[in-house]
Design brief:
The complex is a heterodimer of chains A (about 260) and B (about 475).
Chain A (H helix, E strand, L loop, with lengths): L3 H4 L10 E5 L7 E7 L5 H9 L16 E7 L2 E7 L11 H12 L4 E7 L3 H14 L3 E6 L1 H6 L2 E3 L1 H8 L3 E3 L8 H13 L14 H17 L6 H9 L3 H9 L1 H7 L5
Helix pairs in contact in A: 8-9
Chain B lengths: L5 H18 L3 H20 E3 L4 H13 L5 H45 L4 H39 L1 H15 L6 H10 L1 H7 L6 H10 L9 H12 L5 H32 L21 H36 L1 E2 L2 E2 H15 L4 H9 L7 H13 L17 H10 L4 H12 L5 H11 L2 H30 L2
Antiparallel strand pairs in B: 2-3
Helix pairs in contact in B: 4-5, 4-11, 5-12, 6-7, 7-8, 8-18, 9-11, 9-19, 10-11, 10-16, 10-17, 13-14, 14-15, 15-16, 17-19, 18-19
The chains are: A alpha/beta (about 260), B mainly alpha (about 475).
């Protein structure tokens, strides 16, 4: 990593831009959610961003409640929410529901998906599910130190192009890549980087047709809903909490952002 | 909320229903399959691997060893014994130093100062002999072992050993009708039961979570093993050669801890067969890669976040308990103090269980913090046995310089090996401390289950002590 010396001159590395706010989070400009599989270092990333010391440990399922903290970067204030680690968003366990509901109803400005670079395929399953719900996300390709140790290389450009979101290689335990991560968060939050999130289309024609029929109906009733196809699919699968959200009209509030925390 | 769009919402949902019927039952699988397919394709395009890295095979070898059918458990117990032994051996000297400063030096100084400003004897008694001394004891008895135990435990956790422990015990817990993740909450309980109860949130099924919460108290918590270690040293370590005493008493403590795991499993099984019936749910447990622990950060977080946090909690609870101890030893009804009244009244009952009135009273007073059991026991023994020349007077908690002195007091108070064994058992099997009880209530929001979690261990403890005592007498011929 000889090139890293040259990076010091890049604006990204102006550390004075970053002010860790701990738990002081009044007047928040942007909300950032941290999502990812268990044991990928979400809490470590969280601690690096906020300066808090949320307990970290090398075992899955350590974070059971969401933790919140804040930081300020280039005069904007960010609230960071550390979501429980989950393998998917499709089942009904409590932690998965907490994570999914926050991404769906909490409408974070940016969702940072922390993935384990050494177990990319498994981690991408969750990543793709998150990208179905939100269109503003950053992939934090964490544990790059371990990937290097295992002599693995990850082509971040290909990955970024495929997923349609910024991909930042990082080693949170060594505080590597955190400045770039913050810069990417800012770019997505401010709209400088426009995400074109990957949406799964390789489903059977029959399913795709059903999704299309239903999302057209959804679009009529909830104009402006950002993730029509996903909501349609959840309804087709009989997801009770989404059915409830339709019945109570809660879903309709998503377009106007009333539920913004 | 009255919703004007209700009819159209219903139409939408019934459309979804109809479409669902058309799609059939395989929709969920098809959706997941398409996601997996995409993920696999993207990962294939983006990841380049160079050969088969050697580190993977090394990790796998280690995993095969620590999770092996035959070696897994012995290694676990060995690791546990090592952690205990390091804690016992390392904590002795700093504990003594702290006691020297806080108890031997500062306490008389405070007493003299109080006397010279003309503080009435009862006020200085309550404040200095009661509140201050109990705080000083908790700090000198608890701080050193915690400052060693918590970092060691956190290092194991950081390394990735904990999920392996869970993996080893998973099948046992499943056979007991409980969740495999209960192994994790059980391990947390060795640090602090309140933390273990909170950690039970990782268990999704309410039934299994309740089992994990109720049985967490069977993990010997940090506040209880000073008691275990001291009693084991006096009554069990003394049975053998002095050189072996340390190892034997550490072994006895591990034995009690393992017995606790046994009770955890047995009670989980009993609960899942009766009031909390149901199938054990499956879960996937990822064995995380071994990661080199970050020593300094671990030291810092385990000291600040855990050690000081737990210590502070103990101090907060110990101070009022100290006041109570002083009061029961100094308030008199007729000839005797309240403490003596209770002790004489409870003695015949307690002897059936192989305990004595002092132990029962000490456990009642020490509900807020298990750490103060031993000092309270000693103080009350001196008071009730009418010994003179030991300790510093009624209501003054003390702990003796050497283990021999402590042994002499206890033996003069009528303690035998049986009392020692029963105290160790009862220390494992009694109600959780008040913090844990409160945490259980907060987590379950149910008075009923809080009561079950509180009283079940006492009943078990008394039953176990009763049977041990009766068998003991049977074989000893009375």
């Amino acid at each position: 990593m000889n090139a890293s010396h040259n990076c010091e001159n890049c604006p990204v590395h102006h550390r004075e831009n970053l002010i860790r706010l701990g738990i002081a989070m009044d007047r928040v400009d942007y909300v950032v959610a941290l999502a990812g599989n268990p044991n990928t270092g979400k809490s470590t990333v969280f601690n690096n961003l906020t300066g808090l010391r949320q307990h970290t440990g090398n075992w899955p399922g350590k974070t059971v409640v969401r933790a919140e903290g804040g930081f300020s970067y280039r005069e904007k204030r960010y609230k960071v929410v550390d979501l429980p680690g989950t393998y998917s968003l499709l089942s009904t366990s409590t932690d998965e529901e907490v994570a999914r509901d926050f991404i769906l109803f909490g409408r974070p400005d940016v969702t940072v998906i922390v993935v384990d670079a050494t177990r990319l395929e498994r981690n991408l399953n969750l990543t793709l599910q998150i990208l179905e719900i939100t269109d503003r996300a950053v992939l934090c390709l964490n544990l790059m130190d371990e990937a290097r140790r295992h002599r693995m290389e990850v082509d971040t450009r290909t990955l970024s192009r495929e997923l349609g979101i910024p991909v930042i290689p990082a080693a949170a335990r060594q505080k590597e890549g955190m400045d770039e991560l913050i810069a990417a968060i800012e770019e997505v939050a401010s709209g400088t980087f426009v995400c074109k999130p990957h949406r799964t289309t390789n489903r059977s024609a029959k399913i795709n047709h059903a999704i299309q029929v239903l999302s057209e109906k959804l679009a009529q009733q909830f104009p402006g809903l950002p993730n029509l196809n996903w909501v349609a699919l959840r309804l087709l699968e009989g997801d009770q909490s989404i059915i409830n959200a339709v019945q109570s009209g809660e879903l309709g509030q998503l377009e106007t952002g009333i539920l913004q925390p | 909320m009255e919703n004007p769009n209700k009819p159209s919402h219903d139409a939408l949902l019934s459309l979804a229903n109809n479409l669902r019927w058309d799609l059939g039952v395989n929709l969920h699988d098809a959706v997941i399959e398409s996601i997996y397919e995409d993920a696999s394709r993207i990962a294939r395009n983006a990841v380049h691997k160079e050969g088969d890295p050697a580190t993977y095979t090394l990790e796998r070898r280690i995993d095969q060893l620590v999770t092996s059918r035959w070696l897994g458990f012995p290694m676990m117990f060995l690791m546990l014994a090592l952690v205990f032994w390091l804690t016992v051996a390392g904590a002795n000297v700093p504990s003594g130093l702290l006691a020297n400063v806080l108890v031997d030096a500062l306490h008389p100084l405070l007493k003299n100062a109080a006397g010279s400003v003309g503080m009435p004897w009862w006020l200085s008694g309550v404040l200095i002999d009661g509140a201050y001394l109990s705080m000083a004891w908790v700090i000198s008895v608890m701080l050193p072992p915690m400052a060693i135990f918590f970092p060691l435990f956190t290092l194991l956790e950081d390394l990735g050993y904990l999920p392996r422990v869970a993996f080893n015990m998973d099948s046992l817990f499943r056979k007991a009708g409980a969740h495999g993740k209960q192994a994790l909450t059980l391990s947390m309980g060795f640090g602090c039961n309140a933390a273990g109860v909170i950690a039970a949130r990782v268990i999704d099924s309410p039934r299994e979570r309740l089992i994990a919460i109720i049985t967490n108290n069977f993990s010997l918590c940090n506040g209880r093993w000073p008691t275990q270690i001291l009693i084991a040293t006096i009554f069990i370590g003394a049975l053998l050669l002095p050189t072996l005493a340390g190892v034997v008493s550490a072994g006895a403590v591990v034995g009690i801890a393992v017995l606790g795991i046994g009770f955890s499993l047995a009670v989980s099984w009993a609960l899942s067969q009766t009031v909390l019936k149901g199938e054990a749910s499956a879960f996937s447990l990822e064995l995380p890669p071994y990661r080199p622990p970050r020593i300094w950060q671990t030291l810092y977080t385990s000291l600040v976040d855990r050690t000081l946090f737990v210590l502070w909690r103990a101090v907060v609870f110990a101070v009022p308990a100290g006041v109570v101890i002083w009061l029961v030893a100094n308030l008199h009804m007729g000839e005797l103090s309240l403490a003596e009244h209770f002790i004489y009244w409870a003695n015949p009952l307690a002897l059936v269980f192989g305990l004595n009135g002092v132990i029962l009273l000490a456990y009642i007073i020490a509900i807020p913090a298990n750490e103060i059991v031993i000092p309270t026991v000693l103080m009350l023994t001196v008071v009730s046995a009418g010994m003179t020349g030991e300790g510093a007077g009624a209501g003054v908690m003390f702990e003796l310089e050497s283990i021999e002195d402590t042994a002499q007091i206890l033996q003069a108070g009528g303690w035998t090996l049986l009392t020692g064994i029963n105290l160790m058992l009862f220390s494992l099997l009694h109600n959780p401390c008040s913090t844990t009880i409160y945490t259980i209530y907060k987590e379950t929001k149910s008075l009923k289950w809080t009561a079950v979690a509180t009283f079940l261990p006492i009943v078990l403890g008394l039953a176990v002590c009763f049977f041990v005592t009766q068998f003991w007498y049977l074989f000893q011929g009375g």
